[in-house]
Specification:
Layout (H helix, E strand, L loop, with lengths): L11 E5 L5 H14 L3 E3 L1 H4 L6 H9 L5 E6 L7 H15 L4 E7 L14 E3 L3 H15 L26 H17 L7 H10 L4 H13 L3 E6 L2 E7 L1 H11 L3 H14 L7 H9 L3 H13 L3 E5 L5 E6 L9
Parallel strand pairs: 1-2, 1-3, 3-4, 4-5
Antiparallel strand pairs: 6-7, 8-9
């Protein structure tokens, strides 16, 4: 059984002011504060005939509240009684006993003791009263107006995949590889398609252009840069190798499946790449890069011709050992 909720006492605010400011500003402010859960201490409501002014104002008013709201106006700035209240509030603030919240009316110059404290500039209007009350209530209730931090943009949640690349570069390279997988080509890719997708990840136009230049410099892509934009956009072998495992985490499983087919069920005909892709459910571009890697190591020989035609010439007996 859940325990009963404990009702917390409302914070208190003592309103230090000149009587001339009471009708049109201070009393409406006190009412608005009370509407917002603040126990506003106003002399008109608290002091009765026969009361000791010193005891009621200083011992029970200023000393017992969480904040002193000093309403500074042309009427109050030079009044001795208000000065006494302000001095007591300043001491309480220094001792950490309460807050001191200045409210400035009519553009009056602030007294020296208040110049180093952030004040509220208010208007003698209903809107000014409401605004001031809300600021004071937010302060006393501990409300922080700072907006909450939203979720990270998609690109910032991506880990860099290679030395010299940041998260933005990784997103651009990853989307380039995705475009290559989609078209089964690494040459003459659509930069417009890649650019559109990386912007959806939250990258600015400046970030995209910077990443494009960097990837080209480091040899991950090959692009002709002109004033009108990027032309002849290619993914390099270096770029493919750097990012394929991020785009296709199962790439090593695909590699082993392709090698198993080459060893145990060697394909024939003039569509070897598509044949192996269908058998192993591997993207054709990935199959071709696997074959290129094996051919570079002398483990097989194949050729690719125009029109997606591909022929396997030979497979080395040592290829079987790669399955171990």
């Amino acid at each position: 059984m859940e325990p009963d909720a404990v009702e917390l006492a409302p914070p208190g605010a003592f309103l230090s002011h000149a009587s001339e400011d009471k009708p049109d500003f201070v009393e409406p402010l006190a009412r608005e504060l009370r509407n917002r859960g603040v126990e506003a201490w106003l002399d008109k409501w608290e002091i009765r005939p026969g009361d000791s002014l010193v005891r009621r104002l200083f011992d029970e008013g200023i000393a017992m509240t969480d904040a002193v709201v000093a309403v500074v106006s042309p009427h109050s700035v030079d009044k001795p009684w208000v000065r006494e209240e302000l001095d007591a509030a300043a001491v309480a603030r220094v001792n950490g006993e309460s807050l001191l919240i200045p409210v400035r009316l009519d553009g009056v110059p602030m007294p020296a003791p208040l110049k180093h404290i952030v004040w509220i500039t208010a208007d003698r209007t209903p809107e000014g009263v409401v605004h001031t009350a809300q600021e004071i209530a937010d302060t006393l209730h501990g409300h922080n107006p700072k907006p909450a931090v939203g979720p990270l943009p998609a690109y910032a949640r991506v880990a860099a995949i290679a030395p010299g690349l940041n998260a933005a570069d990784t997103v651009v390279l990853g989307e380039t590889i995705q475009e290559a997988l989609r078209t089964n080509e690494m040459m003459l890719l659509s930069w417009a398609a890649v650019k559109s997708r990386v912007k959806d990840a939250g990258l600015s136009a400046e970030q995209v252009e910077e990443s494009l230049h960097l990837l080209d410099e480091l040899g991950y892509v090959d692009v002709t840069l002109r004033s009108s934009g990027a032309h002849d956009y290619h993914l390099t072998g270096k770029g493919y190798q750097a990012g394929i495992s991020t785009v296709l985490p199962q790439v090593e499983e695909h590699r082993r499946a392709v090698i198993a087919e080459l060893v145990n069920n060697q394909p024939t005909g003039r569509a070897v790449i598509n044949n192996l892709a269908a058998r192993t459910e591997t993207p054709p571009l990935v199959v071709e890069q696997i074959l290129k890697g094996l051919q570079d190591r002398g483990l097989l020989s194949y050729s690719r011709y125009m029109g997606n035609s591909s022929v396997l010439h030979s497979v080395s007996p040592t290829l079987r050992r790669l399955l171990g």
